[in-house]
Amino acid sequence: MKNLSVLALTALLFTVSCAEAKTDIATTSTEQTVAENAGETFAVNADSSTVNWTAYHKGGLNPRFGTMKTTGTLSVENGNLTSGSLTSDVNSLLTNPRSVDPTITDGKTSADLDAHLKSADFFDAEKFPNVNFEITKIADLVAGSEIKMAGANKTVSGNLTIKDKKVNVTFPAKVEITDNHVTLMSKFTINREDWGLAYGAEGDPKDWMISQEVDLELHIVAAK
C-alpha cells in the first residue's frame, strides 16, 4: 500500500508538471535604459487596477494567490503607449483566504502567509516597501506569435525591481487606448529566484517545496 501511495503521488506530480501552462513565460535580460516620457500622461487608477499573483508548491500543487495595490503613470503619444512606471506597495499584499486551508496548514491562515511574505524571509517590506516596474520598450506583437494572452497586440519590456535587484522582463500584453483611458492587461510567469526571492539561505531545504515560478496578472487602468 505504501508503494502504491508513493507511485500515485509521483504520477500526480508528473501530471501537474506536464500540464499545459496557462500563462506566457516572461523572458529576462539585464537592466535596460528606461523609455523617455513622451506625449500625454495618464494616472493609474489604483481602485480600478489589479495586480494578481499566484505562487505554487512544487509540481504546481496547493496554489496560493492574492493581490497587491498599484499606482503609477502611463504615457501616450499619437495613439501609442510610449512609456510608464508602476509601483506596487508590498505592504498592501493580500493573500486570498480561499487559497489557504487552516485544516491542512497546522492552523496557519492567509493572514499568517501575508506576514511571512512581507518578512525578511521573502520581500522584507520594512526595508524594501515597493516593487517597481519601469517600461523600457514597447513593440507591436509579431504576427503569428504563439502566445496565450487573449487579444495581445504589444510586447512590453521593462525593468522590474524587487528588493534591491533590477531585471528586465519582456511579456505580451493587450493595450487599449482611447481619448481618456489606457488599459494594459497581461498574464505571465517569472522565476522568483531571478530576484533572489528564496526562503532561507541558498540551498535551504525549506525552499525546495516552493515552486520557482510565480504567475503575475496585470489589469492596469489609467485615465487623464
Quickly describe the structure.
With 224 residues, the protein is mostly beta strands.
Give an overview of the whole structure.
There is one protein chain. The chain is mainly beta. It has a single domain (22-223), classed as Lipocalin, CATH 2.40.128.110. 12% of the residues lie in helices and 45% in strands. Strand 10 and strand 11 (165-177) form a beta hairpin. The chain is globular and about 55 Å long. It starts with a helix and ends with a strand.
Shape: globular
**Relative helix content:** 10-25%
* Gyration radius from CA atoms, angstroms: 19 Å
Structural class: mainly beta
CATH superfamily: Lipid/polyisoprenoid-binding, YceI-like
Count of discrete structural domains: 1
Topology, number of strands: 13
CATH topology: Lipocalin
From the 3D coordinates, which CATH architecture would you assign? Beta Barrel
* Broad CATH class: Mainly Beta
The end-to-end distance, rounded to whole angstroms, is 64 Å
Summed over residues and divided by their number, the pLDDT gives a mean of 88
Give the helix/strand layout.
Elements: H1 2-18, E1 24-25, E2 27-29, E3 40-44, E4 50-57, E5 64-68, E6 70-77, E7 80-89, E8 94-95, H2 110-118, E9 130-140, E10 154-162, E11 165-177, E12 181-191, E13 210-223
Parallel strand pairs: 1-12
Antiparallel strand pairs: 2-11, 3-6, 3-13, 4-5, 4-13, 5-8, 6-7, 7-9, 9-10, 10-11, 11-12, 12-13
Identify the notable features of this structure and list them briefly.
2 helices, 224 residues, 13 strands, mainly beta, disordered N terminus, eight-stranded antiparallel barrel, Lipocalin
